[in-house]
Amino acid sequence: MITNQRYERILDYLNTHGTGSVNDLVEITDSSTATVRRDLTYLESEGVLKRIHGGATLGGLQKEEDYSDKSVKNLTKKIRIAQNAAALIENGDTIFIDAGTTTYEMMPFIRAADITVVTNNVTLIAQLVKNGHQTHVLGGKVKPATKAVVGYDVVEKLKALSFDKCFVGVNAIDLNHGFSTPDDDEALIKKTALSQSRYAYVLSDSSKFERSAFVKFADLEEAIIITDTEKHPFIQQLNTKTHIIEGGGDG
Fold first, then answer.
1. 150/147 Cα distance (integer angstroms)
2. Does residue 251 have a pLDDT over 50?
3. 192 — phi, psi (to 5°)?
């Protein structure tokens, strides 16, 4: 099993069980004890888990990661989520797509015609224009870590617009803390976009479940979650009337 696959399997296990012993993680990754201990040391240095005696647990608040680092994590799940999200777009829709690595994966799967797309994601612009979509880019300061355009002007412009649907990413989802992200500027943009949309969708793979980031931008009831599995214990606790689970399995 390659390194990134071990990382993903370890984090999936901890997301499901909360904690895991080294022996548990050796078994699920089919690796040696020494390899798992090295993996845990690295993942702790990245702030995604906390080592405890004999194993590890999920630790701390979700921190902001660089866009290029996030883009390769859980990629198979992100593509599946993005495909299902794109299928919700209908001919003639006006939509908002925010900055994020999962929302970026929507681009090849958008089949609807005559749509208008508003975005603060600088990585989407070229592909949207190439695909012939009417594209509006919100102006402001570009945040290097996430490639998001942020600031007062972005929020004020969003307040003047209305959308059929919006699609936003998230760093963490928790029953008590709702949807959250590490950055207050991006949190305000997400919050505003959700409030200006008839249908609001949050795209999240299961590694974000039962975690919290610094700034809450919405309660769970304010958006529909599109994710990779309905079998995760966190999903089982949600009101299925207000959440859609798309993805075709556990990936």
1. 9
2. no
3. -65, -45
Which own/partner pairs from 91-95 qualify as long-range (CB within 8 Å, at least 24 positions apart)? 91/115, 93/164, 93/165, 94/118, 94/162, 94/163, 94/164, 95/163, 95/164, 95/165, 95/166, 95/167
226, 244 Cβ separation under 8 angstroms = yes
Q: Is-contact 146 71, C-beta < 8 A?
A: no
Chain centroid offset of residue 163 CA: 20
pLDDT of residue 237: 80
Give the C-alpha separation, 240 to 245, whole Å.
Answer: 8
Which is it for strands 172-174 and 116-119: parallel, antiparallel or unpaired?
Answer: unpaired
Tell me which amino acid residue 196 is: Q
Query: How far, in Å, CA of 188 to CA of 178, rounded?
Result: 14
Q: Which amino acid is present at 210?
A: E
Cα 38 off chain centre by: 27
How far is it, in rounded angstroms, from Cα 52 to Cα 104? Answer: 36
Contact residues for 37 (Cβ-Cβ < 8 A; gap 6+): 22
Using pLDDT thresholds of 50, 70 and 90, give the confidence band for residue 231.
confident
CA-based radius of gyration for the chain:
18
Q: Which amino acid is at 243?
A: H
Question: Which residues 6+ apart lie within 8 Å of 175 measured at CB?
Answer: 210, 220, 234, 237
**What's 168's DSSP letter?**
E
Token pair for residue 168? Answer: 């936003």
Beta bridge partners of 149: 142
Residues in the chain: 251
Neighbours of 215 (CB within 10 A): 20
Q: How sure is the predictor about 3, in pLDDT bands with cuts at 50, 70 and 90?
A: confident
Q: Is the pLDDT of residue 12 over 60?
A: yes
